[in-house]
Sequence to fold (253 residues):
Amino acid sequence: MLKQHIDWFEQYVQGFLTGDPEDDHHIVLKKEHSLKVLQEARSITDSLGLPGELAEAALLGALYHDMGRFYQYRRYKTFRDDLSQNHAFLGVHALRAAPDMPALSKSATALVRGCVVLHNRRAVPARLAPGLATAVRIVRDSDKLDIVRIMLDYMRPGGSRSDVVTLHVADEPERYNPELVAEINQGRIGDYAKMRFVNDFKLLLASWVYDLNFPAARRAFRDRGHVEELFGLLPRAPELTRLKNRIYSALDQ
Fold:
C-alpha cells in the first residue's frame, strides 16, 4: 500500500516540473524532503510499536505533509506562508482534489488529512483524539529533523544558497534578533515572525528541541550534532553560549 502512494506522489510532483532549472530545483527539493520525512517517520513509528492503521496513517501523513508546497511555489515562488497561503491548507485541498490517489479507508483519510493540516501549527491543539495526536506528533518530529538537515546544507560556509529556502531573511553574519533569544530562553520555540536574519533562523531551528515529542527524535537530533553545528554557525556571544547550554539541558530531559 505504501509503495503505491510513493509512486503516485512522485508522479504527482512530476506535474510541477517546468524545465526551468531554478524552479525545478525547489520542486525536487520538496519532493526529496517529503521522502526523507517519510524515512524519519519510519524510524519513530518502529520505535513506538504502533498498531497497523495508525502507523500507516502516520507514514502517509509524513509523505503528504508538504503537498501544498508544490502549488505554493508554482503560484507564488516562495515557501513563506505569510507571503502566500498556508501550505498546510493548500495540502489538504490538493489531497481532496486528487481523484486518482490510491484509496484509503475513511478513518485513515481523516488521520492523514489531520496530519497535513496540523503539521505546521505552532503547537499541537489540545483535545485531539489520541490516535491523531500521536500521528501528528510523529509527522512534526520527522519534519523538524529533515528541515534541520536541509537548512544546514544551505547555511554552512560554501554550501548551497537559495533565498527561497532561507525564507528571504537577511544574511548579515553578526546580527540576530535579541527578542528571539529572549523567547527561546523562556523555553519556547522561536516565532517565525521574529526572524530578521539568517542567524535568527539558526536559533529557531535549535529551539525546536523544545517541541520534539519522542525519544527517537531527540536522540537523532543530539547524535547528528545539530545543536553543536547550529551554534557553531552563530556569532560568539555570551548570551548565545548560555542559550546553547539551555538547549542541551532541554534535549537531555
Remarks:
- The chain has a mean pLDDT of 96.
- The two ends are 37 Å apart (CA to CA).
- The longest helix spans residues 21-48.
